[in-house]
Amino acid sequence: MFTKILIANRGEIALRVIRACREMGITSVAVHSTADSDAMHVRMADESVCIGPASSSESYLKMASIISACEISGAEAVHPGYGFLSENEGFAQALADHDITFIGPTAEHIRVMGDKITAKETAKMLGIPVVPGSEGGVPDYETALRVAEDIGFPVIIKATAGGGGRGMKVARDASALEVAFRTARSEAKAAFGNDEVYIEKYLQKPRHIEIQVFGDGKGNAVHLGERDCSLQRRHQKVFEEAPGPAITPELRERIGKICAEAVGKIKYIGAGTIEFLYEDGEFYFIEMNTRLQVEHPVTEAIFGVDLVREQIRVAAGLPLSFTQEDLVINGHAIEVRINAERLPNFSPCPGRVNVYHAPGGLGVRMDSALYSGYSIPPYYDSLIAKLIVHGRDREEALARLHRALGELIVDGVDTTVPLFDALLQNPEIQRGEYNIHWLEKWLEQTFSK
Predict the structure, then answer these.
(1) Please, are residues 269 and 261 in contact by the beta-carbon 8 Å criterion?
(2) pTM (2 decimals)?
(3) What is the mean pLDDT of residues 96-118?
(4) Which domains does the chain have, with CATH numbers?
């Protein structure tokens, strides 16, 4: 087992890893930019190293500085959290070249799953159901038109190197395809330096369902059920729950088994998430995230496992501490992502937090790096907290979420808490009847009045 782990991240996820290390008796090392010198993860870690100025490109994304921090501190392994370098194959390989363990999958698995076309081809080969679409990238409009007519409109054009909704356009008929195709390529080039796009069938009212998988790198793998992440704004998740309201035990067993067997075949190591669009009883592969997800706590809540602890264990060469038979769902969990943003435009709202009070009580978990007097810097993502609740069933979880939101105090900056207060009053949310388009339509109707 490792004696010292460096966390190449910040905020709540860095705290999450530090806590797991402390329970395992492992020394933790925080890295930080100059803007984060008074951040909670720096205060909580056993050791800390400053790796650069405020800009992410000069600190949290600078591989050489992080590797130097490992050498300075003597850290044997790096946990990347999510975001930043967590899915960077070059970083994983650079650590390996310096005999430092990357707590995550191999550089090769990150590479294969990081490119959406290669990921789709790999998924298909492994028996994972995929959305009908182009075989690889689409080089020009004429090819795009042939593909679209073959699979049927509407279609969606996506950047192969995409993420966060950039380089993604819908064409509902042939007349809209050319503009959508050229716009997607232009956005992809600007955002990722790569204008390659591919085309898929656009599903009308799907849900976003993701399957949590875990492998030991030796061919053994399990699934930990699904999360429903359909409530999204601009392709960014805001509300996640497990188990999914629309997924039956039979569907869960079927798709979970397919995913676990697939990652076992490729000897995947660590945590991974296989994401699907789900409609009318069928699952369609979107992508695989080769890291810990922001929403992993809802899975931990219903299965009673520590996914970060398990990541560290398998990275150290130990076997999985549970089998598929051990994984039995207990109750229902919901997570809401609380951002420092001003409604209704969701504009970032950094600034000083005058008073912070976290909710508590049975079944309530608050993952946050906030404290009273902390100044939220303007340089990073606006996520400031994740509120997770667990109940015996969905009804109890919703009631607990409502109660916990009422206890939460973040004074000094605007947050998205009012969004969740309003959502909980909606009958469709109460019944779990929503899809990936629901939230944006609701926001448009609610704030245009």
Answers:
(1) no
(2) 0.89
(3) 94
(4) 4-103 (3.40.50.20), 132-201 (3.30.1490.20), 207-447 (3.30.470.20)
Distance CA 10, CA 85 (A): 12
SS3 375: strand
Query: Any long-range contacts for 304-311 (C-beta under 8 Å, 24+ apart)?
Result: 304/330, 305/224, 306/20, 306/23, 307/212, 307/214, 307/271, 308/16, 308/17, 308/20, 308/79, 309/20, 309/23, 309/24, 310/214, 310/271, 311/79, 311/103, 311/104, 311/270, 311/271
Q: State both tokens at 166.
A: 């950039």
Ranges of H-type helices in 78-210? 89-97, 107-114, 116-125, 141-151, 174-192
pLDDT at residue 41 tops 60: yes
Pairing of strands 4-7, 27-33: parallel
Percent above pLDDT 90 for the chain? 90
- Whether 327 and 303 have beta carbons less than 8 Å apart is answered as yes
Distance, in Å, from the CA atom of 22 to the CA atom of 42, rounded to the nearest integer, reads 14
Distance, in Å, from the CA atom of 214 to the CA atom of 224, rounded to the nearest integer, reads 8
Q: Is 70 exposed, middle or buried (0-12, 13-18, 19+ CB in 10 A)?
A: buried
Catalytic site residues? 291
Give the pLDDT of residue 191. 80
Whether residue 433 has pLDDT greater than 70 = yes
| Alpha-carbon torsion angle 223, 228, 230, 235, nearest 10 | -40
| Three-state DSSP class for residue 435 | coil
User: Which region among 6-10, 75-79, 142-146, 295-299 has the lowest average model confidence (pLDDT)?
Assistant: 142-146
**Is the predicted pLDDT of residue 164 greater than 70, yes or no?**
no
The 10s digit of each residue's pLDDT in 241-290 is: 999 999 999 999 999 999 999 999 999 999 999 999 999 899 999 999 99
Residue 261, judged by CB atoms within 10 A of its CB (0-12, 13-18, 19+), counts as middle
The C-alpha atoms of residue 248 and residue 122 are separated, in whole angstroms, by 27
337-373: pLDDT as tens digits = 999 999 999 999 999 999 999 999 999 999 999 999 9
- Whether 313 has a pLDDT exceeding 80, the answer reads yes
The whole-angstrom separation of Cα 258 and Cα 43 is: 43
Quickly count: other Cβ atoms within 10 Å of residue 192's Cβ: 16
Give Cβ neighbours of residue 159 (< 8 Å, ≥ 6 apart). Answer: 116, 166, 167, 168, 184, 187, 188, 191, 192, 194, 195, 196, 197
Residue-averaged pLDDT of the chain: 95
